[in-house]
């Protein structure tokens, strides 16, 4: 097989697959499409806001970091672009000339290639199956794998030889500088670099690590990781290995720690318009002002589908966890925990109706949630209900007091606070049952 030429490539691929008889079946994520939407519950994705957030990041990164020029930006689109729909977000970022994309899974990368995305895609998860079989798909789809074990390097080298490729396949190496999760331990990198140095048919293009505490005001752990990273780079140099791109920064680090801006940065959450400084009080002014300019990309809305008047003493929902202390008007909305509205919002938090907050009452059930609209004059069947994002109040004379006319908003941060989680989980939780509608203003 090693004697075949480039023109034989298709048959080589087919032979390789038959010989191994076990090609990977990649499962495409399925999600509800707008055309399937009978229910008024939907997530509106504002692609203009994605572009805006990329510009905000670009501007923020122009100030001095580690390298002479501003770092390139590799947008993180794992988990279906944090629930926003990866193909649409990728197309938007590609048109806005982002440098590259990162995903966690091979499946996620293949989905983007199938959607016609041609810019570099880094597959960060590092899992390519017990026999590293996924590396064949990596080559086939022109993806860049993140590797951290000598066996993975050997396997990629074998595949490369078998295929007689014209260009050297590139890979990035991940080192564990203090997260203790994934990547080569600093004690093993010399052995890894020995193997890499033996395989010049591959291109060691990038060196990366991931920060554990970049969203923490205490810089100690981040500085320790930076020192470990510098040490690993030095050891690579001693093996005469100089990767083109070093990168370590997520959104929080890219904005708050200029010392983490190497050749590239890997923002995720900031691209979706959510501040990475959740629950953090002390943040550098520049970072805070940049994160303040971010615009939320996702808005989740539904409508009131039922209304009922309860007498004092009447109870609502499973296990009667909420009881009316006075006559109350209760609205039902068709969204529940199966849609990603976590059940821990039961009797907590609120939704927006006519620009005002209606508290969630009773437990969130699988498909339905109940809210108290007693204090919202005129609340009616078919009214829009905003679960996440902002809502313009109706124009006078629909509202009685003209005082309360500013647009209200429910943020991912607010939901995270109520439910003891982080905004990342709030947006990625919105399930595939909720169709995504794209707006491109
Ligand atoms: C998710 C992820 C990021 C992006 O993190 P944000 O906090 O969303 O910016 C960057 N790097 C790696 C390795 C990740 O897994």
Explain this structure.
The structure is a single chain. The protein is an alpha/beta fold and about 450 residues long. Helices cover about 30% and strands about 20% of the residues. It is built from 13 helices and 20 strands. It has helices spanning about 10-20, 45-60, 80-85, 85-95, 105-115, 135-140, 150-165, 190-195, 220-240, 250-255, 285-295, 410-420, 425-430; strands spanning about 40-45, 70-75, 100-105, 120-125, 145, 170-175, 205-210, 245, 265, 300-305, 305-310, 315, 320-325, 330-335, 350-355, 355-360, 370, 385-390, 410, 435-440. The strands form 3 sheets. Strands 1, 10, 11, 14, 15, 16, 17, 18, 19 and 20 form a 10-stranded mixed sheet that branches. Strands 8-7-6-5-4-3-2-9 form an 8-stranded parallel sheet. Strands 12-13 form a two-stranded antiparallel ribbon. Helix 2 crosses helix 4, helix 2 packs antiparallel against helix 11 (about 285-295) and helix 12 packs across helix 13 (about 425-430). The longest helix has 19 residues, at about 220-240. The chain is elongated, with a radius of gyration of 25 Å. The model is unreliable at about 1-20 (pLDDT under 50). It binds pyridoxal-5'-phosphate. Pyridoxal-5'-phosphate binds next to helix 10. Pyridoxal-5'-phosphate binds near residues 124, 210, 250 and 276.
């Amino acid at each position: 097989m090693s004697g075949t030429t480039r023109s034989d490539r298709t048959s080589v691929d087919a032979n390789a697959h038959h010989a191994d008889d076990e090609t990977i079946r990649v499962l495409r994520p399925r999600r509800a499409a707008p055309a399937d939407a009978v229910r008024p519950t939907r997530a509106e994705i504002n692609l203009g806001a994605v572009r805006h957030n990329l510009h905000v990041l670009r501007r923020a990164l122009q100030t001095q970091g580690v390298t002479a020029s501003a770092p390139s930006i590799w947008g993180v689109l794992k988990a279906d672009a944090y629930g926003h729909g990866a193909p649409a977000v990728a197309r938007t970022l590609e048109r806005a000339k982002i440098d590259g994309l990162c995903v966690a899974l091979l499946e996620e990368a293949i989905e983007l290639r199938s959607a016609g995305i041609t810019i570099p895609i880094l597959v960060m998860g590092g899992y390519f199956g017990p026999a590293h079989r996924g590396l064949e798909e990596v080559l086939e789809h022109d993806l860049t794998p993140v590797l951290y074990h000598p066996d993975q390097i050997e396997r990629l080298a074998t595949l490369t030889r078998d295929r007689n490729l014209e260009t050297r396949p590139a890979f990035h190496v991940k080192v564990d500088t203090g997260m203790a999760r994934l990547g080569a331990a600093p004690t093993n990198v010399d052995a890894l670099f020995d193997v890499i140095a033996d395989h010049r048919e591959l291109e060691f293009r990038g060196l990366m690590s991931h920060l554990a505490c970049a969203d923490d005001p205490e810089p100690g752990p981040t500085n320790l990781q930076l020192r470990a990273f510098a040490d690993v780079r030095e050891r690579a140099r001693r093996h005469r290995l100089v990767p083109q791109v070093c990168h370590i920064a997520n959104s929080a680090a890219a904005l708050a720690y200029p010392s983490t801006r190497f050749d590239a940065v890997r923002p995720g959450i900031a691209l979706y318009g959510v501040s990475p400084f959740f629950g953090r009080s002390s943040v550098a002014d520049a970072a805070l002002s940049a994160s303040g300019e971010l615009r939320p990309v996702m808005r989740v809305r539904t409508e009131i589908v039922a209304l009922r008047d309860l007498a004092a003493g009447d109870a609502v929902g499973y296990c009667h966890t909420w009881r009316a202390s006075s006559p109350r008007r209760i609205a039902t909305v068709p969204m529940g925990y199966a849609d990603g509205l976590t059940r821990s919002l039961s009797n907590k938090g609120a939704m927006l109706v006519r620009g005002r907050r209606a508290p969630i009452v009773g437990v969130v059930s699988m498909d339905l949630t109940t809210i108290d609209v007693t204090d919202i004059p005129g609340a009616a069947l078919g009214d829009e209900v905003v679960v996440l994002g902002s809502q313009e109040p109706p124009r006078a004379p629909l509202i009685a007091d003209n005082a309360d006319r500013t647009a209200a908003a429910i943020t991912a941060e607010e939901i995270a606070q109520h439910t003891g989680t982080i905004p990342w989980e709030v947006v990625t939780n919105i399930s595939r049952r909720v169709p995504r509608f794209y707006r491109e203003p």
